[in-house]
Amino acid sequence: MKSLILIILYLIVGFTPYFGASDKQSVQIFYLQILNFLSILLISIDAFKGNFKNLKIDLSLFFYFLFFLISSLSLFIAENKVEGLRILTDVFTYLVSFFVMTMFFNDLDSRQRRIIINTIIIILGIEVFMVLLPFFRDFLIGEIKPRSTQYSGTTGNVNIAAFSILMKLPILLYKLLKLKKIKFKFILLFILLFLSELSIISVSLTRGAILSLLFLNVIVAIFYFLQYTLKVISRNNLYRVLLILLISIGSNYAFNKIAYSKINVVERLQTLGSTEDDSIAQRKRYYSQSLHSIIENPLLGIGIGNWKLKGIEADLPNLRAYIVPYHSHNDFLEISAETGIFGGLIYYMFFLVPLFLAVVQVIRRKFNKESTLAFYLGSVIVIYFLDSMFNFPFARPIQNIFLLVVIVFLTNNILNTGTKKGFLINKKWAIFIFMPLIFISPISIYSSYRLYNSSKEQLRLLAEYNYNLFTTPIAEINKLEMEYPNLSGTTIPLKTFKGVFYIKSNIDSLIDPAIKLFKEGNKINPYLPINDSYLSFAYLLKKKNDSALYFGEKAFKAQPKNLVHFTHYLFALNELNDTLKMKKTYDQYISFESKDKIASETYFNLIANRKRGKKSNYFIQEVKEELYSQDEKMKVNLYLLEYGLEELQKADSLYLSGEEYFKNKDYINAAKDFEAALKINPKETPYFENAALSYLQLSNYEKVFKYSDTVISRKINTGKAYYIKGLAYFEMEKKQEACVEFKNAIKNKFYIPQGVINLACN
Questions:
Q1: pTM, two decimal places
Q2: Best CA proximity match to 673, nearest among 695, 658, 653
Q3: Contact 503, 510 (CB under 8 A)
Q4: Does the bond joining 493 to the residue before it have cis omega, within 30 degrees of 0?
Q5: CATH of 456-643 among 1.25.40.10, 3.20.20.330, 3.40.50.1820, 3.20.20.30
Q6: What is the pLDDT of residues 198-243, one digit of tens each?
């Protein structure tokens, strides 16, 4: 019974809470390490008591052990050995989990194996419920959020949730299609099938998962068709299976059409063939970069866990902010890049070998009913394989552990039928294996605890950095884990964060220690230019302008699509009064990030301060019109550069004079002053509006329309201009036209009394 309970504990790894960590993976690995230690301890006690059964280790486990050895060797050439050791710890965790679950399955009888299958279906039901609960809540109020993280269930990611559910679907189909009669159990399982497919098709909208689901339905249909051809099942049974598959898929397609008026599953899949889809273009780029790395380092690769660094080097010109290619989005390419071609092949052999054996068993048994379970377990491996071709399930404990359970289930089932051979482990060998594991496991648990603790700390660090709110006291920052791991989840070195906190503390004595931390961060991750950028900022604070310029330029040239790099480089150029280079830098950055308001504000503020009110049209060439309406400070800076302080003051004086004339009902002189002001500064909207109002009082409708239409043509803050036009039409006794303009004014958030609208529109 303890073997059954422990296997179930492995299966529920996906339900572990975050426990305050920034990354659920760290919690799950910590959980698995504790479970591994407990399992090894129990097995060792049984071995010493003489209760140990001889065990045959299959090829799959042997290949995973070889992969662990190759990964360990690649660690010696890894550039960041700490990060490599972190990923190697994950591999070791899976290896031990694989081994102990193999032993546990050896103890299970047929009834307990059925309990495992039922447990998988229950887990599937819980996962689906967690995904659909927030989705149906939004569906009922008509506010569905496509691919929202709110629909990620227990995983924190819709893609992971989709494939986690999909991997368990073959087990559900196995149970459902075995049933001969439509009773309560059948209805319950069919509803779960529909809801599972719903969570993939309509909730996650994950293209890879949808295609894999369709593929699963096709191979299931083919399997039962071959069974019918070989007279294993009747024609009625075949029709029944096909009808169940068609109804579940068809009803989900119908629901999808109802739920989404704009983006449905067909349109989502059509983007796979689009040359403009960012994720497709991104994946192609990553694949090409991974292949290039494999060609350059075919034997031991670049070191386990180090693709996240080399990926930055390969894709740096395309990066925005610090969103890095953490994975290659193809496990085979990524693992081959990290551990060499042989390492990649060995890794894939560990689950392709049992898949091959499953196919052999199905064919040898001529698709009979005894081979059905092998077919469905093999289908799970196929889905994992498809996922690994487009994503990175290797980094997801929830999928890895389920895959290991399926492989152990499959190989154990094949072993019992005598279709394969294994490596025999007797009591003597068991003690030889378990004794080291008993001593190594506590070390691994300690390692995982440090990683989990660091993940908790990173949650706060990343939040404060992203929101530019550095509230944690320096005394607490100094206590945080910075050595293991040495990289955050974004690949920014943890020492870099510490240096940023030092800089933001405004304590002069911490500038030099911050510079030291940034230099150390450069060694930890030499491919992300964040450290060079903050070195530039730190040297500015120390008034070392030449060093600030050197590091600022280096960071910006390496990653020109980054706001932090642009800003720090601009500050350095400003200190050296190199306004021409500032304009060139701004033009380059804005060509990538044309809608970056902060970049424009920073640039124009610095330039306006440098020019001190002098007219400098050169610096606002090709400036977009919408910048003039963003906020008052931006507008003033642009006006200063375009017209100069003296002219602006003259225009403002005329405007104030015009207002005074208007108050005194001297509309002729008011109109003249407003017109004189707008000729000096033709971008200031109130000048035009007040000129139009003055001419409205003079019944000069031609000029009213002229100035109102000028404002309206700018398509920003046009409500008042529409209102003025409406008044003009009303005075001209054109009520229909007036009504239209008043309604336009209201649409543009300009208040008009209801009485005025009634007079024009009734």
A1: 0.83
A2: 658
A3: yes
A4: no
A5: 1.25.40.10
A6: 999 888 888 889 999 999 999 999 999 999 999 999 999 999 999 9
